[in-house]
Design a protein that fits this description.
The protein has 60 residues and is an alpha+beta fold. It has a single domain, classed as Alpha-Beta Plaits, CATH 3.30.70. It has 2 helices and 4 strands. The strands form 2 sheets. It has a two-stranded antiparallel sheet with strand order 1-4. A two-stranded antiparallel sheet has the order 2-3. It is globular. The N and C termini lie close together (6 Å). Bound molecules: iron/sulfur cluster. Iron/sulfur cluster binds next to helix 2.
């Protein structure tokens, strides 16, 4: 099962992960990215590759 985490202290709230994730794993809540649909993750690594603050970790 994929494990997707967002480091709240690093997240700058730009929402890039929400835009790039093809399966809507993330949602913005109170100007931070929240993982709301982890089971859908297809391990494409678009989110962690494009997050400018390296706030996202994706593990298999
Ligand atoms: S690795 Fe891909 S599918 Fe998984 S959360 Fe990141 S963008 Fe979405």
């Amino acid at each position: 099962m994929p494990k997707v985490t967002v480091d709240k202290d690093k997240c700058n709230g730009d929402g890039i992960c929400v835009s790039v994730c093809p399966v809507s794993v993330f949602e913005m809540q109170n100007e931070k990215a929240m993982v709301v649909n982890e089971d859908a993750c297809i391990l494409c690594h678009a989110c962690d590759a494009q997050c400018p603050t390296q706030a996202i970790t994706v593990e298999e």
